[in-house]
Structure formats: structure tokens, C-alpha cells
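Forgive a beginner's question, but would it be possible to get a protein, spelled out as residues, together with the matching C-alpha cells, please?
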Amino acid sequence: MTFSLDTPSAATLKAEAKALRAERALAGNPLGQGAALEEIARRHGYRDWNTASAAMPERAVSPVQVGQRVKGTYLSQPFIGMVIGVQLLADMNHYEVTVKFDRPVNVSKSELMGPIYRQRVRATVDLRGISAARTSDGQPHMRIGRA
């Protein structure tokens, strides 16, 4: 079961079902959309998908939720961590996400400066979990997704 401090939206669970289907397909054990939705609903403590979708609030889609385990890249460095803050911005298309990494990430690319470690970062991401801000080599500051 995914840990969250608030009730997930139907769109969030549908995204989890899509990820589950992709994971199972890679493992050579394909799963239909309906079966994936049922499994995700049970993981979240619901009897079935119909019960889950009836209980979920109508709200904006969020790429991640508070308390969720995530992975991705920050300043081109891979990370695994937990979301400790999410705030929807006024444009309703971006979120300010705060992540605490399991292990500090060295964000320095210069050997002259030495390592610069970050363990807790905040970034603005779109609905796909990708920041518009870019590094000097054109890579997004952050890419974030479910672990």
C-alpha cells in the first residue's frame, strides 16, 4: 500500500495502474487495464476499483503526494527519497515539491570546488514531474516520479 497523508485522486491511482501495467509487461506478465485498476485499488485499501473511485475527491492531478517514495534526478544526479511537501501553484499546472533524499546528493560538477551535498531540495515541476528550469547543459533541474 502506498503511504500518503491525504486521499489520492482517481488520476493518481490511474497513473499507478499504468505504471503497474508497464512493469508487468516488462516482466513478461501482461496485465489488462481493468485488472491493474483493481489491484491498485486493493493496494490502497479499497475493496475494488468502483469503491475506490466513488470515495476519491475531485481535484487537480498531482505528480506526487506528501509521504510518497520517489526517485529521479536532481541537477543530473540520481536520487531516491520521500516527498515532504507539495504545493499547487496559481497557474494550476505546476507544483512546488520538497523532497528529502535518502542519501545526500553531490550537486557540484567542478572538481575545483569539491563536493556540494544536498539532502533536502525544493523544485517547481509540471504535471509530469519535470522542472522547466534547466541546467547549463539543457537538462531539467529535477525529474521526479514514483519509486
